[in-house]
Amino acid sequence: MANLRAPEKADIPDTLASGLWDTAHALADAARDAILPHFRALGLDAENKDATGFDPVTVADRAAELAMREVLARRRPQDGILGEEFGTSAGDSGLTWVLDPIDGTRSFLSGAPTWGVLIALSDATGPRLGIVDQPYTGERFSGGLGRASYTGPLGERPLGTRSTAMLNEAILFTTFPEIGTPEDRVAFERVKTRTRLTRYGTDCYAYALLAAGHIDLVIEAGLYPYDVGGPIAVIEAAGGIVTNWEGGPAHGGGRVLAAANAGLHAQALALLRR
């Protein structure tokens, strides 16, 4: 049976939480401003960070993370930072901002608006608040510390996951059809063949859709902490569950299962672990 028991989370006073949220939104705003001039710009190129494959990074990735780090230097210099492009900066507050300036750089390069800015604030127990921001569409999904909300072109509304009861009624998303190792792919296929619909290639936007109540499952492998910190906080605040494929905490990355509700999570987890 899955072990969904989470570590005890320390209370964060409302006065501190309000300031932390102000900082999180300031980070997302700064990243938007840094990124948007480059999206769909003619001649945009990328460097490859992976000698054995293709892991692109663009000037927009680096500019966005630097912009967010500048915000933190002004507002929260006591906090740690873990960023995809510029690594770790130590802090002494017990809190760490986990930043992915552009999750889905392949989509960014291709002009597809399924990439996003991922922001999480974590302590020793994992993410406490998170944002998934899509600058081009103007959508922001926020969750944690008592909040679960969406803002976008049609205004603001609460987030909430679906109550889908059975896998044969579920919509499943993942980014890469060849998910993880060959063994990972076999496990993924066990879930896929039992779902109603499977879609590919939406990067972090899939997690946002789950939190907003449009899909039911996201299954991925080979992730890093900055790929999942923000989505975990948003999905959990919306009523969903995110674990690794063994049912434990997922904020360290690796193989991740996000589900709209506990019943659906248990069904998918049993097939992944079989």
UniProtKB/TrEMBL annotation:
Pathway terms, separated by semicolons: Amino-acid biosynthesis; L-histidine biosynthesis; L-histidine from 5-phospho-alpha-D-ribose 1-diphosphate: step 8/9
Q: Which cofactor does it need?
A: Mg(2+)
Query: Which one Pfam family would you cite for this protein?
Result: Inositol_P
Query: Which GO MF term does the entry hold, naming one?
Result: inositol monophosphate 1-phosphatase activity
Q: What class of enzyme is it?
A: hydrolase
One GO term of the biological process aspect: L-histidine biosynthetic process
EC number of the protein: 3.1.3.15
Q: Could you say which protein family the record assigns here?
A: Belongs to the inositol monophosphatase superfamily.
Q: Which NCBIfam families match?
A: his_9_HisN
Protein known as? Histidinol-phosphatase
Q: What is the source species?
A: Salipiger aestuarii
